Amino acid sequence: MSANQLKPSERMKIQRQHSIEQNAEERSHNFKEVSLGLDEVLALMEASRCLECKDPICIQGCPVNVDIKSFIQLVNEKKYVDAVKKIRESNFLPAICGRVCPQEEQCENVCTLGRKHDPVAIGKLERFVADYELKSGQFEVPTLETKRKEKVAVVGSGPSGLTCSAELAKYGYDVTLFEALHEVGGVLRYGIPEFRLPREILNVEIDRIKALGVKIYKNFVIGRTATVDELFNEWKFSAVFLGTGAGTPHFMGIPGESLNGVYSSNEFLTRVNLMKAYKFPEYDTPIRLGNHVAVIGGGNTAMDAVRTSKRLGAEKAYLVYRRSRNEMPARLEEIHHAEEEGIEFLMLTNPTKILSDGKNNVLGMECQKMELGEPDASGRRKPVPIPGSEFVLNVETVIEAVGQAPNPIIQATTPGLETTKRSTVVVNDTQQTNRRGIFAGGDLTRGGATVILAMRDGKTAAAAIHQFLQNPTNES
Questions:
Q1: Which has the least CB within 10 A, 159, 249, 257, 470?
Q2: Residues 6, 7, 13, 18: what is their CA dihedral angle, to the nearest 10 degrees?
Q3: Domain limits at 437?
Q4: Same domain, 77 and 195
Q5: Contact 11, 51 (CB under 8 A)
Q6: What is the Cα–Cα distance from 411 to 360, expressed in whole angstroms?
């Protein structure tokens, strides 16, 4: 019997609970986490809103199929550690997903309560139980009932690689994770700022994967230090999962992009998040930032870059986007936080040229106003230039957050591996490539997507690798 004694009609009257947050003015000058999550009182109130549907379609809305109904019932029973254990059956990174997963587009988007009211704050409840377990020190390493002899290599330690490693270790395989950088975490470490995902949380989640027996090699570039074929032939791995992400930035191709003061969002965020540029000279990676900064783009990466600029001391931090606010792919929560922090949004604005001061430095950015026309291939209305609407935005720094592509090293050094014109690796619906024993997922196959979709790829691949190794005579 459920611990929730309220009738459905009573549950519907309870308002959705909101996270405790840092004051906007204060947080815009520090890198501490913006959202402090729900406390126990708020979490219990929020959990009591769940209708406990007979057919919980929220589970279908979750890319990794977390048993949402069951974990929320455990919250109602105040069995918080059991709740996070239930989540971890499907998702081994609950403290991360509770912070950065776009639940509003997935599980919460199909929540039955959300048809007439605000949906249950599933993500905030996931974070609450994960944080409770961490603070209480009650994490227990899952018991591995089987130990298998086969060795599996996982390349890349982002969300797909971490998830694949954890799932394979739970199956009992001997797993080795290879990371090209000097720190583990991939985009979770170099791409997402500390104020959204504290490094303490990321480090704990990684330590828990290590506790499953996963071995990690850092500063190890597959395609240079060793090739994929050498992993099979010399290291004697039985299968390989590729999850190296999409770290090659796109640029708009407008004049002036070679000027000092122009960054890709990838370089900018990596310097700050991974190499601690905001702590210079304590850390030896300085970053040049003017008083006026323009970030081009409308996704979560653009939002991370512009909010980071504000925290680094920019007097004016502009978000320049060629469509309207309604078309922005960034999470609504991130847009709301940015607005609270004083970010200035220049909607329906398209940069056409970056201007020089004559000494190879950025002096400004020429822009043109846009209007929305007919929908394009993405389904969003296409921005159309308005003649005679040109103007100059006075900035000293320009950061382009307009997409990225996979680094081509692995593709170039793995003969016969099928790829697309965008350098993404081609896989089937179980993440298998055309090369026997090689699987891939995350941004390497998608070209840029969410953390949770990368995790789904890693989980799907682990199951396919297990099936492949149980039937080694089958073709992949």
A1: 470
A2: 40
A3: 151-247+404-470
A4: no
A5: yes
A6: 36
Dist CA 469 CA 455 (whole Å): 21
How much is the pLDDT for 376? 84
* Mean pLDDT, range 47-69, rounded to an integer: 96
240 and 255 belong to one structural domain: no
> Tens of pLDDT along 95-139?
999 999 999 999 999 999 999 999 999 999 999 999 999 999 999
Average pLDDT score over residue span 459-465: 98
**Mean of pLDDT over the chain:** 95
* Structural contact between residues 254 and 354, judged by C-beta atoms closer than 8 angstroms: yes
**Is 429 part of a structural domain of the chain?**
yes
CB of 442 closer than 8 Å to CB of 156: yes
How far is residue 157's CA from residue 468's CA, in Å, rounded to a whole number? 22
The full DSSP string for 35-87 is EEE--HHHHHHHHTT----SS-HHHHHSTT---HHHHHHHHHTT-HHHHHHHH
Q: Has residue 56 been placed in a domain?
A: yes
Note the pLDDT of residue 255.
98
Read off the amino acid at residue 101: C
Round to whole Å and give the CA distance between 105 and 377: 20
Q: Which pair of tokens denotes residue 334?
A: 């991130």
Start-to-end CA span in the chain (Å): 45
Residue 105 class from Cβ within 10 Å (0-12 exposed, 13-18 middle, 19+ buried)? Answer: middle
Q: What is the CATH number of the domain that holds 326?
A: 3.50.50.60
Residues 394, 441 within the same domain: no
Residue 172 domain-assigned (yes or no): yes
Q: Phi and psi for 319 in degrees, rounded to 5?
A: -110, 115
Task: Look up residue 243 and give its two tokens.
Answer: 């999850």
The total of structural domains in the chain comes to: 3
Structure confidence at residue 6 as a pLDDT band (50, 70, 90): confident
- Report pLDDT for 282: 84
Q: Over range 2-21, report the average pLDDT.
A: 88
Q: Between 40-47 and 68-76, two packed helices, what is the crossing angle to 10 degrees? A: 130
What pLDDT band is residue 215 in, cutting at 50, 70 and 90? very high
Residue 471's Cβ-count burial label (10 Å; 0-12, 13-18, 19+) is: exposed
Choose the final residue of a domain: 136, 162, 192: 136
In the predicted model, is pLDDT for residue 476 greater than 50? no
